[in-house]
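Two proteins, back to back. First:
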Amino acid sequence: MSATILDVSNLSVVFGKGSAAVPAVRGISFAVARGETLGIVGESGCGKTATGLALLGLLPSSGRVTSGVARLGNRDLLAMSPRELRGIRGRRLAMVFQDPATALNPVLSIGRQVSEAVAAHNSELDRAQAKKRALDLLEAVGVPDPAARYRDLPHVWSGGMRQRAVVAMAIANRPRLLIADEPTTALDVTIQAQVLDLLRLVQGETGAGLILISHDFGVVAEMSDRIAVMYAGEIVETGTAGKVMETPRHPYTAALLRSVPDLDLDREQLEVIGGQPPNPSLLPSGCPFRPRCFLSGGRAVCRETAPRLDGEKGSHQAACHFAAELAIR
C-alpha cells in the first residue's frame, strides 16, 4: 500500500452563524495515498466542494470548519494560520477549480498568471526563468505554440484551453495532492476526455494524490481508485471503485447508478431518484435518505436511528441499516 498523503478525520463545515448556521459537511473521514485517485460523488449541495475548499482554507467568509483534523504529511491543514496555508497552497497541495473562466484573472495574460504560480514558491528564479518554466508547463499540458499565446488574455482561449492553463498553474510546483473540483463541467465530451487524460498524465508523472469531485458518476468511475459517495453532508458509502460500482451497499448509491445512461440497455426513460435532497438545516429524523429510499419501507429503525458507516476504515463501508438486503437484490 502506498504511503498516505492526506488523512482527514471528523471534518465538519457550517455556513452562517448562531441559529442560522447550516451544516454543509458533517463529520466525514477519508484518506488519500500517493498516486491514488479518490472520487467524491453526489448531488449538488451534498458538501463535495465545501470539503475541498475547507482543506485549502478557501471557504467563503460565511463558512467555517467546526471540527476535524486533516493531516497532510505531519501537518494539520485545519490548524494552520492563513499565512501558513498560503505557504503550502500551490506547493504541497493545489486545486483545479470548476470554472476556469473565474479561476483566471481576466485582465492578466495567461502566461503571466502561470509565471506567477511558478515564482510564488521559487523566489530564486528571475523573471526570464519563471517565464521559461511557464512555457514548459503550457507545452506539457498541450497548449499549442505557447510562446505565441503567452500574452493572450483568458477570454481569447476556449474553455478547454483555459482549463489546461489552470491545470498548468496547479502543477507548477509539483504538489503532493491535487483537488479537482468538477474539472469537466461545461466542456463538451471530447474536451472532457482530454482534460481527464491530462490529469492522469500529470498524476503519473508526479505521483500526486488526486481528489476528484464530481456529480458525474461516469467520470468518477473512469478515473478513481476509490469512491466516496456523499449525501446531505455525510459520506454514505465508500470503497474501491470496483466494489462501489458493481455491488453498491447503500440505496442512494444504487439509485445514482440506475440513473446513469447505459447504451447496452434498451429503455426509453432513465430511472430517477424520487423527491429532493433535504434542507441541510432541517434534516429528517433517523436516516437522511429515508424519505427517498426504496429500501426503508417505513421501518422504525430508519425513522429513529441515523446509520453510521460500518466496517473498518479503508474497507467497503455503507451507512445503511439494511445494506445486506441491498446486496441480495
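And the second protein:
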Amino acid sequence: MNAITYWSGRMVVGFVQLLPLVFVAHCGRGLGALAWRLSGRHRRLAIDNLTQAFRGEKSPEEIRAIARETFRRTGENFLCAVKTSAMSIEELRPHLEIGENNPLPEKKAGVALPNFVFAIGHFGNFELFARFKSLRPDYQVATTYRGLKQPGLNRLLQEMRNRSGALFFERRFEGAELRGALNRGGLLLGLLGDQSSKGLRAPFFGRDCHTGLAPAVLALRYECDLYTLFCFRTALAKWRLELGDKIETHENGRPRTSADIMREVNRSYEKAIRRDPANWFCWVHRRWKN
C-alpha cells in the first residue's frame, strides 16, 4: 500500500512539475475555489476565526470575501510549492523577491558565521524559505518538521524538499543532529511559530491560543539573533520573502523569558496578517482551542 501511495503521488507531482508555473497557480486557485464550495466545515471555521479576529473592524461581507480568497490562495500556494520545488533558482528568480533588510554578515577569513533563528509561519508559499540557501550559499538553511503518518507520502514530501539543499530535522527524533548543526555555526534555522503547541497560552488577535516556545528557546540557548520572516504573495505565482521584526532576546543585559519573547512573535505575526489576511492559511484550522 505504501508503494502504491508513493508512486501514485510521484506521478501526480511529476505531472504538475511539467506544467508552467502560472498555469499551476491558476489550477491551484480553481481547486481552492472548489474546496470552498465543498468543505462546509472548513468554510464555517474560517469565517468564524476571521469574525473573531476582526470583530468591529470588517463587515460580514468583507470577512466572507477574505475567507473565500484564503481558500483560493491556499490552493495556489500548495500546488505552486510542488512546482517550485523542482525549479532552479534561475527559473525561480522572476517569481521570487528578497526583501532589502538583510542582517546576515558576509563570511570573513577565520571568523565563524553566526546562527540565526527565524520564526516563520504558514504565510504564502512558505516552502520557499528552504530556497534561501541558493541566494546565500555561505549559510546553511535548516528547519524542523513532523513526519506524516503515511510513510509513502512522507517519503515523497521529503524528496521534494531535499532538492532545495536545506536540512530537515524530524523534531521528535533528530534533536541531536539539529544541535550538531547549530554548534557548527552559519545556520539559518526556520521554526514554525503559528502552530498549536502546549508550551504556552499567549494572546493572538485578542484570544489566548497554544503557542510553541521553540524559536525562543533555541535562540536563547545558542545565542542567536531572532527575527520573524514572512512569505508575501505579491501577484499570481509571485512571492516576496521579507524579514519582519527583530525580536530581542535580552533586556538590560539579562535574558528575557521564552514566554515574553513568543508573545512578541505573536504580535509580529498579527501585523503581517493584518497586512494581507488571506495570505495566512491557518484561518481554516482550529488555531484557537479551549
